[in-house]
Design a protein that fits this description.
By secondary structure, this protein is an alpha+beta fold. It is built from twelve helices and 16 strands. It has three domains: 180 residues, Glutamine Phosphoribosylpyrophosphate, subunit 1, domain 1 (4-Layer Sandwich), CATH 3.60.20; 140 residues, Rossmann fold (3-Layer(aba) Sandwich); 39 residues, no CATH class. The strands form three sheets. Strands 1-4-5-6-7-11-12 form a seven-stranded antiparallel β-sheet, covered by helices on one side. A five-stranded mixed β-sheet has the order 2-3-9-8-10. Strands 15-14-13-16 form a four-stranded parallel β-sheet, sandwiched between helices. A hairpin with a 2-residue loop joins strand 4 and strand 5. The relative contact order is 0.09.
Length: 375
């Protein structure tokens, strides 16, 4: 099996219905220079993230089971995203990882018979032979209050450029694409688990998720707000990294950034390369600059003016992969169930201590009150 590090590749397959060749262009983002292609019996496997040891197993499963190959891959393959190009069968498969950590986009230029595949919208737009139109419906949806929590779809801010959904693979043949779901969550295996088992499992998978990002050769950055999510991610990243990671605190005078002392405790204990970043004061200018960089708007809660200078500092530091704790609260919860648990156990001293701490740190409640109308 041959291995080639690459960022641009081109293949030819046949559209048997139209009796025309289709050019397959694989365009990988310059920042994610950790992709590799594996060639075996005219089947090409391009990983978004390097996973050499898994390439042979994936191709063997595909040869044996065809489109059902995902059903025969173990959970160890959940974090893998790749393009599989089967030239003899004129077939292209785009497979996104289970939780959608790694993006996959595609565009089929019907006029020029070119299928572009990428981990970056910008790479597709800048290499295409056509001028794209804005996807107005998606832009309008972006400005709705519930955009951050709505179910993902395959739409982007450009018409005809689509995203492959998490835990899906896209099957392209004869000029037509079909998206198929694979895998499923199995929460029932934890139904009888003890608290100790659940805690150990959470620790295991949390560390596995964070450390999987450390496989990239480029320097790693991590947002560090001082909150539980970003602090945990930064601590684990630095503990397992062979190099010092870069941490960034947005030093804005708003209620969600009153925990600077917590962020500094983390950076002091773990000795990260840390910078406190002042926000930009021009929101509209920041929006334009960020969209010019990524060809899609920022989807974090923080405004563009808060994030722009962080991204600029990342560029100076050579950081190509920025970790964030955004969304962690939605996954784990805001911790209020613990108050009920202490009350039920009549542990009132601990309960009152926590309530006093919460009263002294209003950002714990005020942020979420402003975000969704309730605390």
């Amino acid at each position: 099996m041959d291995i080639i590090n690459t960022q641009k590749l081109s293949f030819q397959i046949l559209d048997k219905k139209q009796q025309q060749n289709i050019e397959i262009k694989v365009l990988l983002d310059d920042l994610q220079n950790n992709s590799s292609i594996y060639l075996s019996d005219n089947i090409s496997l391009i990983f978004i993230n390097q996973t050499l040891s898994k390439a042979t197993a994936i191709i063997e499963k595909y040869i044996e089971f065809g489109l059902q190959f995902n059903d025969h891959l173990s959970d160890d393959f959940q974090n893998d995203a790749f393009f599989l190009i089967d030239i003899p069968k004129n077939t292209v498969i785009l497979r996104r990882d289970f939780f959608g950590k790694l993006p996959i986009y595609y565009f089929f230029d019907k006029q020029n018979k070119i299928l572009s595949l990428s981990d970056s919208i910008k790479s597709i737009v800048t290499n295409a032979k056509v001028k794209f139109k804005a996807n107005e419906n998606q832009i309008i949806s972006y400005f709705k209050p519930d955009f951050d929590t709505k179910m993902p779809d395959n739409q982007t801010f450009f018409q005809e450029i689509y995203s492959t959904l998490p835990s899906h693979f896209l099957y392209f043949k004869d000029g037509e694409a079909q998206q198929v779901h694979y895998g499923k969550l199995k929460p029932e295996k934890y139904e009888q688990a003890t608290d100790a088992t659940l805690i150990a499992s959470f620790k295991k998978y949390f560390e596995k998720s964070v450390t999987s990002s450390l496989a990239f050769n480029s320097p790693i950055g991590s947002m560090l707000s001082g909150g539980l999510d970003s602090s945990s991610i930064s601590c684990v990243s630095q503990a397992f990294s062979k190099q010092k990671i870069n941490t960034y605190f947005i030093d804005a005078d708003i209620i969600t950034t009153k925990e600077k002392h917590f962020a500094h405790q983390v950076k002091d204990q773990y000795q990260t390369h840390h910078k406190d970043i002042l926000p930009d004061d021009q929101e509209l200018v920041a929006v334009k600059e960020l969209i010019d960089l990524t060809f899609e708007p920022e989807k974090l809660i923080a405004t563009n003016s808060l994030l722009l200078n962080v991204y600029k500092q990342c560029k100076i530091d050579g950081v190509a992969f920025l970790l964030s704790g955004h969304g962690g609260d939605n996954l784990v919860g805001l911790g209020k169930e613990y108050f009920s648990e202490l009350f039920d156990k009549k542990e009132f001293v601990q309960l009152f201590s926590l309530l006093e701490f919460r009263a002294e740190n209003p950002s714990l409640d005020a942020f979420y009150h402003n975000l969704n109308g309730k605390s």
